[in-house]
Amino acid sequence: MPLMYGAQSEGRRDDETMRRFRHDRFGQFIHWGLYSIPAGSWNGVTYDYAAEFLPQSAGIGPARWAGLVDDFAAPEFDPEAWASLAADLGARYVTVTAKHHDGFCLWPSSLTDFTVAATPRGRDVIGELVHAYTARGIAVHLYYSVLDWHHPDWRYAISSSQDEEAFDRYLSYAGEQLRELATRYPNVRGFWFDGTWDESVKANGRWSWEIECMLKRLIPGAIVNSRLRADEHGARHRDSNGALMGDYFSGFERRLPDPWDRTVTAEDWEACVTIPQNSWGYHAGAEVARTHKHPLELLEQLVQAVSLGGNLLLNFGPRGDGSFAPFEKDVVHTLGAWLETNGACIYGCGPADGWDYPGWGYYTADAETGAVYAVVTRIPVSGAIALQLPERTRVRNATAVATGRPVPFAVRDDRTVRFEVDRASVIPLAFALEVEQRDDTAEQPEVNPDL
Ligand SMILES: C[C@@H]1N[C@@H](C(=O)NCc2ccccc2)[C@H](O)[C@@H]1O
């Protein structure tokens, strides 16, 4: 159907900025704001829902919530240390909350007083972070919530002409804030929109279309996630003709596509995940802490995302004082150390066409060289992994990525090779496979099942 405000382009973007985003594969999400101070508790009561939703969980009105501005002193906030932590994690880009649902702005916006400028130290958090990350070669995306609990003209739905006038004022405010962000920080790489699921926003597809145009006019090549967009019929992420809006699909929140689902490999996408089961802002509650994911679970999510052609955006919620909690530093050390020696199977990689999900782990392939990687995350009880090869494919040799040492393997039949895996191996265990196409006339592979 003809659309005025649908997808602005067809198919994957192939410009340098998007190729870099695709190559990066691994980003660090940062949720930091007023919610980081109470960290899930209010007036002595702990609410186990997401810490950044505390105003809703505890019924705290905007005026009382704004009282936290005086407590946002952030004595431990050190942008250089944050940038070093992102580098140690192995993240190639960072997405930082400039304004979350509570409406508090981490940059000194001229459009409102509800910003860091009103805090005791008045630092331009976004400006200092953009400088520090960029100086370390880490790209920055700015998170912006369209949903805004603080602004008096925010509406969840439009049910009167007064609502419409108010919400139009809100959308003008948000549009001017986004212009301000793109103008103040022109070297950010992209914008990550959130809070766009309400009827009021879905009814304003033209506004979302104009925002995408404006941001890409102010910052040529800027990357915008699909969550910003609705078309004139209220269709989100994909327009009413099914075309992806924005530059990558961003509907996977705290979940990944099924490892069998190869349909997702048709487009760029990013999944965002948390270390706790469900809190993006720092949550100090013992019950929430009990459900933190193991670092290797998060690492497996990264490998799974890459095997399906997506990026993983792993969230960290610094504490109210600007420091990171020990459990987050553990994740940084575990993932950073593994990526230091095994990053070849992640960065610049994507799905290995023709190699089906094996169950003991994931296949990735280097988008440039075609090198195939078998990444083992579950060692079978037999202590060996079987690889089902694509048609007319031969494995010439195999190397352990972490050590560079050749790895013996048995050719069981025309389509199967088998690796013995040391059960004491550190997993995920990555093998680099040098493969070649066999034509049918070539001799059958030498079978050596006893190896
Ligand atoms: C990236 C995350 N999105 C925000 C959020 O509101 N998630 C809750 C939610 C998740 C899915 C549909 C509607 C609402 C969370 O607070 C994080 O910022």
Cα gyration radius (Å):
24 Å
| Main β-sheet description | 8 strands, parallel
Q: Which oligomeric form is depicted?
A: single chain
* SSE sequence, one letter per element: HEEEHHHEHEHEHHEEEHHEHEEEEEEEE
Roughly how many Å apart are the termini?
Answer: 60 Å
The amount of beta strand, in percent, is: 15-25%
Task: Figure out the total of helices.
Answer: 11
Ligands bound here?
(3S,4R,5S)-N-benzyl-3,4-dihydroxy-5-methyl-D-prolinamide
Overall spatial form:
globular
Strands, count: 18
Helix content: 25-40%
**In order across it, which strands form the biggest sheet?**
7-6-5-4-1-10-9-8
Low-confidence stretches: none
Mean pLDDT across all amino acids: 96
| Class computed from helices, strands and strand pairing | alpha/beta
